From TrEMBL:
<feature type="transmembrane region" description="Helical">
    <location>
        <begin position="359"/>
        <end position="381"/>
    </location>
</feature>
<protein>
    <submittedName>
        <fullName>Mitochondrial sodium/calcium exchanger protein</fullName>
    </submittedName>
</protein>
<feature type="domain" description="Sodium/calcium exchanger membrane region">
    <location>
        <begin position="421"/>
        <end position="571"/>
    </location>
</feature>
<dbReference type="InterPro" id="IPR044880">
    <property type="entry name" value="NCX_ion-bd_dom_sf"/>
</dbReference>
<dbReference type="Pfam" id="PF01699">
    <property type="entry name" value="Na_Ca_ex"/>
</dbReference>
<feature type="transmembrane region" description="Helical">
    <location>
        <begin position="418"/>
        <end position="436"/>
    </location>
</feature>
<feature type="transmembrane region" description="Helical">
    <location>
        <begin position="167"/>
        <end position="190"/>
    </location>
</feature>
<dbReference type="InterPro" id="IPR051359">
    <property type="entry name" value="CaCA_antiporter"/>
</dbReference>
<feature type="transmembrane region" description="Helical">
    <location>
        <begin position="202"/>
        <end position="221"/>
    </location>
</feature>
<feature type="transmembrane region" description="Helical">
    <location>
        <begin position="135"/>
        <end position="161"/>
    </location>
</feature>
<keyword id="KW-0106">Calcium</keyword>
<feature type="transmembrane region" description="Helical">
    <location>
        <begin position="227"/>
        <end position="251"/>
    </location>
</feature>
<keyword id="KW-0472">Membrane</keyword>
<feature type="transmembrane region" description="Helical">
    <location>
        <begin position="103"/>
        <end position="123"/>
    </location>
</feature>
<feature type="signal peptide">
    <location>
        <begin position="1"/>
        <end position="26"/>
    </location>
</feature>
<feature type="domain" description="Sodium/calcium exchanger membrane region">
    <location>
        <begin position="104"/>
        <end position="245"/>
    </location>
</feature>
<keyword id="KW-0050">Antiport</keyword>
Length: 583
């Protein structure tokens, strides 16, 4: 039991490492306009008047490019591409619809990159780290699994909170995803497969989430997040993890007691090895030796080509046309991810050890890390004005790869193979961070073009894009007969997202020298969003126990209707149809 309570320390340690990586990667350049950190004063910035960048569409077409380039509010902080300059400086006004369409397709592809990276590279490495640290299933579920599933939301929030101009995007996305998951996803599960929800976990999770929403609502009302407030978010999540562990342990202890008292004369339960003696003998042939012989017959070049091939020809033939079309779009991303991100799989006998590829990772992964930090600024930095950092990394990585290659074999993974899981964790985290940065920059650019607030972009496009994968996963679980598991995942994931997303995102901003993080709500809409989320949680807290925790299709349809009503009200508020009367 003591070991289970100490496990959150490892989670905080990894979050601290991630915070340090994001702090370095998110360091802003001196020229950040009106929102510059006081540690980096820039001469002449105050001489330039700061105008809302959304005013650019009201100017003449010939003046828009100069406005974008000179107005500090239009500058992109971080990222590889300047989307606003691309729209207004490189596309003529007549081709503005084409530019917006291309940006929309690029946004969809970025969401695809986020999903592939999180599902196939980030989560497996987190699972391997969890196995290496010997975490229990419950702790792993509410920490590493939640982190893996919520990685796009967390990184998007961290990137958005790094700039006061896009903080509303983070709040809109976190609140919007909360409303979407607790209504559309939960309602869809109830419609697909009516079921009885586990009462105690449901009440525990919804109460914790209501407290988290109340904390965020209070922070919005105060208009700022201090260091103590940000640490309180993270501390409250640790308290949630400890509560889950304790509740699970107490439940299992009660189950064991009831089993002993109800069946005193029952012989001991069979162990896993004795439970099915037939199955243990019917497959007594050991295929591992045959697999090793096959590996020994393969050359190093063949192993490398097979490891870098993201397409299985047998799977390709058995899949539908839709799956094949989507796979074609995934292939370039998957190839680059295979080339840069090592993956450790504890379920395989060899731990997914591919000697030539893993040795190549020792060169490419660190190179990718330094070229991703601050959009490559640290990678091209020259030591002493002569030798670039990226060249030093390549030399050190090549030496380490050479030692590893000659000290290992193709068939047996080395003793320290588990360290590749941490390298893969960092590399995939920076992949997600880079994609999330581009997503935030594109959404802000689209907000400028259409004169939309960051909050409405967050609660719609960003929330939908980050939640669509989880929604399909939960619906698939429900169809397969596991609606209770899918319903539990709804609340566990969003609790992690809002507590760690706000806490870590604000802590990151404070660590850069700011005394506090200013929260400036985009008018009435953010209050409508927060109020709707709170109302949906209160309705579920009251209605579900009244139904004796039996969720049916009527309840699911009511949740879907609730979300549609909220969406209509939010859009009417955004376009000024619903507004507060001026005094």
């Amino acid at each position: 039991m003591a070991g289970g309570l100490l496990n959150p320390y490892w989670v905080l340690s990894l979050l601290y490492v991630l915070l340090m990586v994001e702090t370095v990667s998110g360091a802003r350049s001196p020229a950040t306009g009106a929102y510059i950190s006081p540690q980096f004063p820039a001469s002449g910035v105050n001489l330039i008047p700061v105008v809302d960048c959304r005013e650019v569409c009201g100017l003449n077409a010939s003046d828009r490019c100069d406005f974008i380039r000179t107005n500090p509010d239009c500058r992109s902080d971080g990222g590889y591409l300047d989307y606003l300059e691309g729209i207004f400086c490189h596309f003529p006004p007549s081709l503005l619809p084409l530019a917006v369409t291309l940006y929309a397709f690029w946004l969809l592809y970025l969401f695809l990159i986020l999903g592939v990276t999180a599902a196939k590279f980030f989560c497996p490495n987190l699972s391997a780290i969890s196995t290496t640290l010997k975490l229990s299933h419950n702790v792993a579920g509410v920490t590493f699994l939640a982190f893996g599933n919520g990685a796009p939301d967390i990184f998007s929030a961290m990137v958005a909170f790094s700039d006061p101009r896009t903080a509303g995007l983070a709040l809109g996305a976190l609140f919007g995803a909360g409303v979407l998951v607790t209504t559309v996803v939960a309602g869809g599960i109830a419609i697909l497969r009516p079921f009885m929800v586990a009462s105690r976990p449901f009440l525990r999770d919804i109460i914790f989430y209501m407290v988290a929403v109340f904390l965020t609502f209070t922070a919005l009302y105060r208009g700022k997040v201090t260091l103590a407030w940000a640490l309180g978010y993270l501390g409250f999540y640790v308290f949630y993890v400890v509560t889950v562990v304790l509740c699970t342990w107490i439940y299992q202890w009660q189950q064991r007691r009831s089993l002993v008292y109800s069946m005193p004369a029952t012989p001991e339960m069979l162990s896993d090895s004795e439970e099915d003696p037939v199955s243990s003998h019917t497959s007594s042939y050991d295929y591992s030796e045959e697999y090793r012989l096959l590996l020994d017959q393969e050359t190093t070049a063949q192993i490398l080509l097979r490891a870098l091939n993201p397409l299985d020809s047998r799977t390709w033939r058995n899949k539908s046309v839709y799956w094949r079309a989507l796979k074609v779009f995934k292939l370039p991303v998957e190839f680059l991810l295979l080339l840069t991100v090592p993956v450790v799989d504890p379920d395989k006998d060899d731990g997914n050890w591919k000697r030539p590829l893993n040795c190549l990772h020792l060169v490419i992964s660190p190179l990718f890390l330094v070229l991703t930090l601050q959009s490559g600024a640290y990678g091209v930095y020259e030591i002493g004005g002569l030798f670039p950092v990226w060249a030093m990394v390549v030399i050190a990585g090549t030496a380490l790869a050479a030692v590893t290659f000659f000290a290992t074999s193709n068939s047996e993974p080395p003793r320290l193979h588990w360290l590749f899981a941490f390298l893969g964790f960092l590399t995939s985290a920076l992949w997600i961070n880079a994609a999330a940065t581009e997503v935030v920059n594109i959404l802000r650019s689209l907000g400028v073009v259409f004169r939309l607030s960051n909050t409405v972009l967050g609660l719609t496009l960003l929330a939908w894009g980050n939640s669509i994968g989880d929604a399909f996963s939960d619906f698939t679980l429900a169809r397969q007969g596991y609606p209770r598991m899918a319903f539990s995942a709804c609340f566990g994931g969003i609790i992690f997202n809002i507590l760690v997303g706000v806490g870590l995102g604000c802590l990151l901003q404070i660590s850069r020298g700011h005394a506090e993080v200013k929260l400036e709500p985009d008018g009435l809409l953010v209050w409508v969003l927060a109020g709707t989320l709170g109302l949906s949680l209160v309705c579920s807290l009251v209605s579900v126990p009244l139904q004796c925790f039996q969720l049916n299709k009527v309840y699911g349809c009511c949740l879907l209707l609730f979300y549609l009503t909220f969406l209509v009200v939010a859009l009417l508020t955004e376009f000024g149809v619903i507004h507060l009367k001026s005094m």
